[in-house]
Amino acid sequence: MKISTEKHFKVYKQTILQEVQDFFFILIGLCLYALGWTGFLLPSKIISGGVTGVAALVYFATDLPVAVTYFSINAVLLVISIKIFGFKFSMRTIFGVFVLTFLLSALQSVIKEPLVHGEPFMNAIIGGMLCGSGIGLVFNFKGSTGGTDILALIINKYRRISIGKGLLICDVFVISSSYLLPPHSVENIVYGLVVLGVSSYTVDLVLNGARQSVQFFIFSHKYEEIATAINQLGRGCTLLDGTGWFSKQPVKVVVVMTKKNESLTVFRIVNSIDPQAFISQSQVIGVYGKGFEPIKS
Question: How many other C-beta atoms can be found within 10 angstroms of the C-beta atom of residue 290?
Fold first, then answer.
């Protein structure tokens, strides 16, 4: 009974630490997004798309504070989020909406001029990179900044369309509508599309970089110890029968699929057990199934 209690406490502790870590990185992502938007895009009057883009349009047309419009629209979208993604995911979305509302309001009151003066194109590039990196980081830790992020996640859930492309589809309409504001400049639309392209590409880059997988072929006489140690990482192994053509001796081959950020751990495990092992590592295009990406048809 004591062992069972200790086990449950350990699992509970790990869960809490994981949640704290997730919210910490979500917070960093929100800070990056808020800095990119208020420091580079909004002062340059560049419409970035999404709910923040809608809020900017309303602000330039009526002087209504950005935070008010942003929060009001997200209040409606959060209801949709709770219904589709569940309350646990929506809690992170609520956290994202409240924190981002505060950050946008605070930074907008401090930053009155673009951080790169007289360079709207550079502001578009840097702002797009920061916003895309922030959104990608938030998504990677199962959070959301609300707004069109929710629509992009819904598209990604039911269709084979990446989150970055989903954002592209949702936001292009917002950017195009900036032409309705004086002085009806096509140039601002172009800058907005540049931001959209850069941010969408950066989102996919951040997400795919975190989700990249690698494949190992490990040749070793101590294959049992190596496979057991790798199993403790939570990764399964497959043993293949082989024959060394030079030695004509039978050999076992351990095949492992892991995330790219776990590859160093695999090397350390193999080196600690059998420094003479032969290892082949290759990057794979995609790995689908338990422990990796879900299979989509």
Answer: 7
The single residue listed with the structure tokens 């993604």 is 85
pLDDT in tens, 51-91: 888 888 888 888 888 888 888 888 887 877 777 777 766 78
> Which residues 6+ apart lie within 8 Å of 294 measured at CB?
288
What pLDDT, on the 0 to 100 scale, is given for residue 296?
A: 56
| Residue where one domain finishes, among candidates 210, 234, 249 | 210
Domain-ending residue, one of 175, 210, 245? 210
Residue 37 inside a domain? The answer is yes
CB 161 within 8 A of CB 232: no
pTM: 0.70
The answer for residues whose C-beta is within 8 angstroms of residue 286's C-beta and 6 or more apart is 213, 293
- Residue 94, H or E segment: helix 66-110
In the prediction, which pLDDT does 171 show?
Answer: 77
Amino acid in position 222: K
Q: Domain for residue 292, yes or no?
A: no
Q: Is 121 inside any structural domain?
A: yes
182 burial type by CB count under 10 A (0-12 exposed, 13-18 middle, 19+ buried): exposed
Residue with tokens 């290759």: 282
What percent of the chain lies above the pLDDT cut of 70?
84
Question: Distance between CA 184 and CA 201 in Å, rounded?
Answer: 27
Task: Give the ranges where 111-222 is alpha helix by DSSP (H).
Answer: 120-140, 148-158, 163-176, 186-211
